[in-house]
Each structure stands twice: as structure tokens, then as C-alpha cells.
Amino acid sequence: MSDHARPGPPQANPRGLTSAEVAERVARGEVNDVPVRSSRSTADIVRGNVFTRFNAILGVLFLIIVAVGPIQDGLFGFVIIANTAIGIIQELRAKQTLDSLALIGEAKPTVRRDGRGVPLSTSELVLDDVVELGPGDKCVVDGTVVEADGLEIDESLLTGEADPVAKRPGDPVMSGSFVVAGGGAFTATKVGRQAYAAQLAEEASRFTLVHSELRTGISQILKYVTWMMVPVALGLIVSQLYVEKHDWREAVRRMVGGIVPMVPEGLVLLTSIAFAIGVIRLGRKQCLVQELPAIEGLARVDTVCLDKTGTLTEGGMDVTELRVLDGDESYAAKVLAAFGACDPRPNASLQAIIDAYPDGSDGWHCTGTLPFSSARKYSGATLREAHGESRTWLLGAPDVLLPPGHPALAGVDEQGARGLRVLLLARATRPLDDPAVVDGLAPTALVVLEQRLRADAGETLRYFAEQSVAAKVISGDNAVSVGAVAAKLALPGAHSPVDARRLPGGRDEMARALEGGSVFGRVTPQQKRDMVGALQSRGHNVAMTGDGVNDVLALKDADIGVSMGSGSEATKAVAQIVLLNNSFATLPSVVAEGRRVIGNITRVSNLFLTKTVYSVLLALLVVIWRVPYPFLPRHLTLLSTLTIGVPAFFLALAPNRERARPHFVRRVMRFALPMGVIAGIATFATYLMARHHYHGAGGLDAETSAATLTLFLISMWVLAIIARPYTWWRICLVLAMAGCFLVVLVTPWLQTFFKLRLVGTEAPWTAVGIAAVASVALELVWRRISRRVD
User: Fold this and answer.
1) What mean pLDDT value characterizes the chain?
2) pLDDT in the model for residue 160
3) pLDDT at 634 exceeding the cut of 80
4) Per-residue model confidence (pLDDT) at position 201
5) Looking at the predicted structure, is the pLDDT value of residue 9 above 50?
6) CB 322 within 8 A of CB 295
7) Contact in structure between 781 and 675 (CB atoms under 8 Å)
8) What is the rounded average pLDDT of the residues 642-667?
9) Whole-structure pTM value
10) Does 202 have pLDDT greater than 50?
């Protein structure tokens, strides 16, 4: 039933719906049933791993081999089945981790039911529910405001307009917007898929494949491989049928043997597994990766912008001193106590004041409020005292409320230099709704707050410094105070803090100032966004951390947004990574995991693409020379398993601390092309030598065995290069693969199964000699490549 056709209450009951009314709406299907998913569905995972371009190619080739036999030449089909199963299992494990973590970090708006506010899952909301709002809360459905107490809502994620919109009863609110100041409540008028931004809200916490240089690069490589495969495969088919026209079954087997190794079938699989295991590892550390490539993205970051409060410092504060400027201390304490009682959702500073002055304001009443805003840097309240007189008070940043040079500011910088936070309590002569309310203030007292440093913040900053990642502390607090906090954590450049109000407006000029400084204070939410953009314009990969509503715009624009689990719903909605344990110290783990993924996938890509290059080259040489293809599918399945498949699996999951570097495709192809060309030419040279050496029955098998020996030795040298720097387990891995091949060569039934048997001594030792020369060439090429810097 449509909204306009269903009779409903013209005005919401401020007590909210009753249980009976909720049940009635559930029965009608008027529930907020938009599925909020943190990962791909099981069906998507299975489909994504099974129905791939190369699985289709290899599947057809496998069926061809099944038709012509023998089954030994169809081993690659079973390898594909095993690899696909492994990929599905790992992604399902990652999905389970993501889903459980997303449940922990799920938004639970406060909804009025039966006269009281209860936190509910967004999927439990029904039409006409009364939803309460406070600073940082996200509007999860569309609605109409029924209560507003200085309510200001940011709709920039929907409209692109950065300025907050003041809301009054009767005004609409849209899902996807969030509260920046004040509080209130609204009635849900559209739920589920009818909501204006339902899809936006769903995508905010959903598994997505956003831009990833790794994924994009691999897709680009696979596209090139496909273009190369088609003409080469056609030429190979024609040549083998022409050469082996007396035995078409042998021609088909040789043709399939030439096409199968061109397919880098395990590359996409190992990339997915590496990302999935990264999610699982980080999940154990209470880190929710809402978008998988964020692991990669943070590893590429060279600049981290940190919000001080909640990141370097803990959320709580303590009042250490009340310095009275006018009047007596007991009166100032009463004002502060009454001021704190005005705000049902105090921020950390006001909560510290409430804790220090919990009572003492008996008979005082709040008759008007101006909520705190990061843009204003102050809040206000109109208080009626016990004897009936009303006065308007402001509480906020002294250097914002007072003009430069004011006597009351004399001790503020001194306190800030000690890392303390100072708020000014001042009496206003103008009403709260006057745009010039800060004019003519009468300073009453300075409230000195001590911020609690996170125990792990210093160690984390040292880690970033060691990894050549620049840390920029961006805060709305006084620059001197922020600098003092950063100095306690030994942040380079902390002793030269910059007041953001003096930053140049131009993007280039701002970028130069940001590159030269480390600590910036009095930064507005819009400035945070501009600072991120300025750094990006200079080629920096920027990560932004934060937990407050004032960080949302910058988090959204940064390359990687990181939110604390205790942060506002708005910040968690736009961040790619949520630290559910609120520990800034988890970030090094994310960086390390990203570097492991990037470094290892680059390694295994070198292996897979080297195989593709030499396979294409061998096929071309066979077509040009009009000779039988030297290998059967079983030979290349054996080689691929021992020199690529098994080693790549271990290398893809190994520890790796290499710093992430750009230009993935260029670096991989720079390695794979020369290595593959050397391997292909050397193998074909051995094959031609063997063709002149062996004659008569069984000659082709002996030629194949000699060529296989050369290709295996060269491939092992490529593996030995890629496995560097050596550790005990990498050396054992290389030796184990060599040992497995030796077992095949000396075991009679394996010789028969794989159709491998070295005949005589001259040709096999010549094959070894050619492989040795090729390995020297590989080593020289690698040394030249490793000296080049992108």
C-alpha cells in the first residue's frame, strides 16, 4: 500500500509507536528491509570463482583431452577444480569474518517505542517510528523533523553542498545525511527501498571492489594475454594438425599442451586468497575492512592525516584548573554545572566539565541553547538563575571568541604549550540567535582540561616515520596545544605548529605549507577536506583518520578513510577501515598486511607471467619451424605445479615488509618479458638439439624429456630469483620442488605416467649446459632490473 493511500497520523506521537502499532506495520511490510551487507553473498563468491574467462578456456580444453585421452594429459583440469575450491573456501571464511565484524560495528539508532528510547538495528525500523538524533548520528531513513534543538544536518554526501542545514519541526531529513550540531528527533516517512538514499546507505558498509591498482593491473595483463592467446593458439592448432596429420589425437594433445601454459590461471585466484586472508588476519585484531582494496590502499599511503582527539589522545579529559577572570569561583562553577545540564549529548570537553561540576546549580534553568559546532568552535546557553535573572553564556575556544591581544588570552598559550586544552566561559550581551553574538563578550573564567595520551600513539608514529610515511596532525584545537601533545609523542616538526586560519587559500600554496609542517590547529571541517585535496594534488596518497562528525568530509575525500569504532555513525559509514577496538596502534598492522599483499602478489605475478611469455614464444617458434610442439599437457602441468603453483601459494601468503611501489604492470612486465624470452629460446634450442640427436621410435619422447629438463632448471632459477631474500623456509621450498622433480625422473612408474625419460648422457647434459647458460643470462638481467627505480 502506498504512503499517500494509507491513512496515518498527521503528527507523530512524541512517545513513539506502541508495540501493537509496530506489529501492525510489520504485518503490512512497512519495515526498513534494505539489506545492509558487509560482504558478497555466497552465490556471488561461488559465481566469481567458478565462472571466469580462463576457467571456461581450460574447461573446454579439459573436455577435449577427456575425449582424446589419456587422462594424464588432463591433470590441469583437476588442478583448476582444486584451486577454485580453495578460492571459494577462503573467500567464505573472509565473508564470515566481515559479517561478524560488521554486526559489531552496525549503526543502532535510538528509536522511541512505548514511550522510551531503545537502540535498534536499522532493519528493525518501521514506518512512523520516532528516531532520536544527536551529533554524529546518521539519518538511516527519510523522515520529517518533529523535535529540533539547534539541529544542524550536513547533506553534502547527497547534494554536494558542504554547508550544514538548520532543521526545524516539519522540515524533511534524508537518509545518508548526518547531524553536525544540536539534537532532535524525526518521524520515519519512507523506509526500505523507498528511501531517497537507500542504495547509498547500503553501499556505505558493503563489500565493494573499488579502485585497486593490483586488480586493475591484473585485469589489464589478462586482457593482453587473451589478445596474444587467440592468434597464437589458432596458429598452433593449424601447425600441429599439419605436422602430425598422420595422428590427429597426438596433434590435439600437443596443441592443448601449447595453449594451457599460456593461461595464468592461478593469478586471479591467489590475488583473491591474499586479500581474503588479509581480511581474516585483520579481523582477529578487531579491524573491519569495509572495502577489501583498502588493505592495499593504506599500504600505498605516504601521508597520514591524524585527528588529535580520539586518535592521539583518548576520548576522555579531566578538568585540572578553573581560572576565574571575573567574579568568584563558586559562581563560575554554578554556571558550568548548569551549562553542562543543558546538553543531553555532551562532547568530550563538556563531559569533563559535567564530571567536575555535577551539581551546585540548583534552581537554575536552561531556556535556550546553541549546540557546539566544529565550524564555530563554541557552544552557548541561555540560563535563568535561581533569582529569576537570565543571562547568555558562551563556552569555547578563547582565541576564537576573543580578539587578538585581549588580556584574557595572556595565559592561554602558556597552558597550550604544556599540552593542555583551554576553554573560555564568557557572558554574552547579545541573544544566541544573533550572528554577532561573540561581539562584546565579558570573559568570566578559563577552564583548563588535561587530555589523556594514548599509550600506543608514540610507538605508532615512530612506525610511520620508519616507513617514510609523513604524519600530519590536523585538529580543531589550539595549534600550540596540539603541537605540545604531538611533541610529547616525539612527532618531527611538532615544535612548529601552524594555525590553519593563516594558511593560504590557494591549493598549490596550501600544499607547500602542508608539506613543510606537521601540526595544524584551528582547522575547520571544510579546511580538513581542502587539506586532503591539496596533498593529493601534489601526488600524495593520503589516509585520513578520525572519529568525529567534523572529519566526515575529509574521510570521504581521502584515498583511505579510517574511523574509530567509537566514532560517529557518519564517520563509520564513509570510512573504508573501521578500528573497532578504537586502537590507533592497529594501523601498522593494516599497513603491514597491505604491503604483504602487494609485495607477494607482485612476486607471484612475475612467476605466472614468465610462464605465459615463454609459452607464447614456444608456440610461435613451433609454428615458424613447423615442428611438433615439444610438450604434452602433463609435462607442463608438472612443471607449473612444481615451479609456479605450489611455490606461488606459499609466497603469496608469506610475510613481506617491502614498501609498496607504483606501476604494478610496468614492473611485472619488465621482469616477465626478458625472463620468459630467455626461458623460451633456451628451451627451444635444447629441443632442436635433441631433434638432431635422437632418431627412430621413441625419439619425440626423448626430445620432450630433454626440453622439459632445460625448462624445469630455468624455471627453478626464476623461482630462486623471485624467492629472494632467502630465509630458511624459502630455501627449503626451492629444494623441495627440485627434489620432487628428481623423484619423478628416477621413479619408473612416474616416468611412465608423465612420459619422461632421459635417454643417454650427451643430450641430457647438453640440456643442463644450455640451462646453465640461460640461468647466467637470467641472473644478469635480474641484476640490471633490480637496479632500476620506478
Assistant:
1) 83
2) 56
3) yes
4) 40
5) no
6) no
7) yes
8) 84
9) 0.72
10) no
Single out the residue of 667, 553, 686 nearest to residue 618, CA to CA.
686
CB 474 within 8 A of CB 307: yes
Return d(Cα 569, Cα 560) in angstroms, integer.
Answer: 17
pLDDT at 533: 92
Give Cα separations from 112 to 65, 119, 245 (angstroms). 67, 9, 82
Whether the predicted pLDDT of 740 surpasses 60: yes
What percent of the chain has a predicted confidence (pLDDT) above 90? 23
Q: Select which of 73, 129, 137, 307 is catalytic.
A: 307
Give the burial string for 561-585 (b: 16+ CB within 10 Å, else e).
bbbbbebbbbbbbbbbbbbbebbbb
Q: Which residues pair with 471 in a beta bridge?
A: 304
Residue 97 pLDDT more than 80?
no
Q: State the pairing for strand pair 470-474/303-306.
A: parallel
110: β partners: 119
The predicted-structure confidence for 574-596, as pLDDT tens digits, reads as follows: 788 888 887 878 888 888 888 88
Annotate 628-658 with b (16+ C-beta within 10 A) or e (fewer). Answer: bbbbbbbbbbbbbbbbbbebbbebbbbebee
How far apart are the C-alpha atoms of 80 and 325, rounded to whole Å?
A: 78
Q: Is 307 a catalytic residue?
A: yes
- The three-class DSSP label of residue 555 is helix
- Strands (DSSP E) contained in 558-603 are 560-564, 577-579
Nearest-Å Rg of the Cα atoms of the chain is 34
Percent composition of the chain: helix, strand, coil (DSSP 3-state, to 5): 55, 15, 30
Q: What amino acid is encoded at 72 in this protein? A: Q
* Weakest-pLDDT range from 402-411, 473-482, 490-499, 564-573: 564-573
Taking the C-alpha atoms of residue 286 and residue 92, their distance in angstroms, rounded to an integer, is 18
Paired residues of 420 in beta bridges: 450
Burial class (CB in 10 A: 0-12, 13-18, 19+), 608: buried
Q: How confident is the model at residue 2 (pLDDT cuts 50, 70, 90)?
A: very low
The answer on pLDDT for 248 being more than 80 is: no
Mean per-residue pLDDT, 762-784 = 95
CA distance 94 to 694: 54
> Which burial class, exposed, middle or buried, applies to 175 when counting CB atoms under 10 A from its CB (0-12, 13-18, 19+)?
buried
Average pLDDT over residues 529-547: 90
What residues have CB less than 8 Å from 672, skipping those under 6 apart? 605, 606, 609, 610, 612, 613
Backbone φ and ψ for 788, nearest 5 degrees, come out as: -80, 140
- Give CA–CA dist 275/262, Å, rounded: 25
Q: Angle 213-243/293-300 helices, nearest 10 degrees?
A: 110
Q: Which of 762, 752, 765 is nearest to 709 (CA)?
A: 765
Residue 315 — very low, low, confident or very high, per pLDDT cuts 50/70/90?
A: low
Least confident of 40-54, 316-330, 332-346, 525-539: 40-54
Q: Which of 272, 242, 282, 366 is nearest to 98 (CA)?
A: 282
pLDDT for 789 equals 52
Q: Cis peptide before 404, with omega less than 30 degrees from 0?
A: no
d(CA 706, CA 683): 9
Show the cell assigned to 511: 600544499
The label of the residue with cell 529540533 reads: 148
Q: What percent of the chain has pLDDT over 70?
A: 92
Distance separating alpha carbons of residues 435 and 451, to the nearest angstrom: 31
- Amino acid letter at 602? T
For residue 152, the cross-strand partners are 166, 181
3-state secondary structure 643-698: HHHHHHHHHHCCCCCCCCCCCHHHHHHHHHHHHHHHHHHHHHHHHHHHHHHCCCCC
Q: How far apart are CA 518 and CA 470, in angstroms?
A: 8
Query: Identity (one letter) of the amino acid at 304?
Result: V
User: CB–CB of 622/259 below 8 Å?
Assistant: no
